[in-house]
Amino acid sequence: MIELVDVCKAFGRQRVLNHLDLAVEKGETTVIIGRSGGGKSVLLRHLIGLMKPDCGQVLVDGQDLARMNNRQLKEIRKSFGMLFQDAALFDSMNVGDNVAFPLREHTRKRRAEIRDIVEEKLASVGLSGVSDKMPSELSGGMRKRVGLARALALDPHIILFDEPTTGLDPLMADAIDTLIRDTQARTGATCVVISHDLAGAFKIAHHIAMLYEGRIIAKGTPDEIRNTEDPVVRQFVEGRADGPIKVV
Amino acid sequence: MLGRPFLALVEGFGRIAVLFFSAMAWAFRPPFRLRLLVKQLEFVGVRSFWVVVITGAFTGMVIALQTYYGFRMFSAESLVGGILALSVTRELGPVITALVVAGRAGSAIAAELGTMRVTQQIDALASMAVDPVQYLVTPRILAGIVMLPLLVVMADFVGYVGGYFVGVKLLGINSGMFMAKTLELMEMSDLMNGLVKAAVFGLILTTVGCYKGYYTSGGAEGVGRATTDAVVISSLAILISDYFLTAVMF
Ligand SMILES: Nc1ncnc2c1ncn2[C@@H]1O[C@H](COP(=O)(O)OP(=O)(O)O)[C@@H](O)[C@H]1O
Ligand SMILES: [Mg+2]
Prior knowledge:
The complex is a heterodimer. Chain A is an alpha/beta fold. Helix content of chain A is 38%, strand content 25%. Chain A contains nine helices and ten strands. In chain A, strand 9 (207-212) and strand 10 form a beta hairpin. Chain A is globular. By secondary structure, chain B is mainly α. Chain B has nine helices and no strands. Chain B has helices at 4-27, 34-44, 49-72, 80-118, 121-127, 132-170, 175-185, 188-214, 219-249. The longest helix of chain B has 39 residues, at 80-118. Chain B is elongated, with a radius of gyration of 21 Å. The two termini of chain B are 37 Å apart. Chains A and B meet through helix 2 and helix 3 of A and helix 5 of B. Adenosine-5'-diphosphate binds at residues 11, 16, 34, 36-42 of chain A.
């Protein structure tokens, strides 16, 4: 269970999160939608302690990340996996070493065992036999899938995805969404996915939350969101430029 | 009224110091990342070898030439060996080597860490429960502190040999006198103090490179800015600290 309570975050005068509350159900997928530049990545970074809130609490299983010291943070991060927006693969390492990295850092497994796990994780994202390639040799979709394999390496309980399908062609985007849904179903992990791709969100989400002007203004099942009366959420879901949200 | 630029300078100093001390604290805590250290020793040291040899040799040669023309006016050519040894070991070896390495390795460190920052690789490290300062910064600073003195020993040596070649072989100074004056004027402490300077310069250029890279923002343009800044700031810091180190040591 992850809970954000009254979280604020500002950069200089710009208030990005403004007394935000959000509860993420354990073992389910919550998709957070919202406009570009609306603070979705900032929100996600708070969930893993990469940013600290100016006020409020970030509770993971009842413990407040915002008050943890480095050692405690490090310990709790071992149960997290995160897929970054552009995958953030280490470009000085080949694909196999990227996926092996968390295993080498945090387990005492032997070389052969690590190699087997790496192959298994890569196979589970549909990429076999690319271990020796460098990240720069891969397409965007392949990089994301390698990033996913790396995020899954330690079998995390909580997986965070920052725009996993942005910038991909529709077929690849659908393949990634399917991968996320299957991974969640297989592992029972708690998943938080950031997206502005509504079709994908409806496909993978148990819950959808909308971030608008620094707060979660609506949260519900995909059906509830689809049929909402809230004019702001309606405008976003229908993808219209005119409405309560000022677009330009 | 202190003014904004001054405050920014003080703040920058503070943040560099914090980065440096946390990197050093991590050096004494496991996991010890020997393989990363070796890689950085190679990058900062071994790959600067030839450029340091060449700059060192020509520095020694030009010093021999200049002092010869100067001292000939007083018929004191025999002093060239001693002056050469002193100026190379005390000043030119450490300073020129440090400036060259700042341009070569300091800038590369800033560019590499800057790229990792803007492509979120540093966040990825942290998200995988690896401390990015320990993983990235500590080995680079240690490599600077260890490798600069070794490079400077090399630069001192080829500088002296280059100066000897110009003074004795080209300009005809008596070889025995050249050596005798060297031994008479120079002491072991000159060499050692030069190496202490080298270690400080190594610390400065790697710390500044890491700082600029680690705190890069603003995409590819930001990486470019970090790289240039790293070279400019570390060059200034090397020359300024050289004055104060000299004032304290000699
Ligand atoms: N480290 C930072 N420093 C300053 N401003 C930031 C930082 N991170 C994000 N912002 C600002 O916060 C706002 C929200 O950014 P972000 O969370 O990345 O949006 P998105 O919803 O597209 O992911 C943006 O205006 C961005 O400029
Ligand atoms: Mg974002």
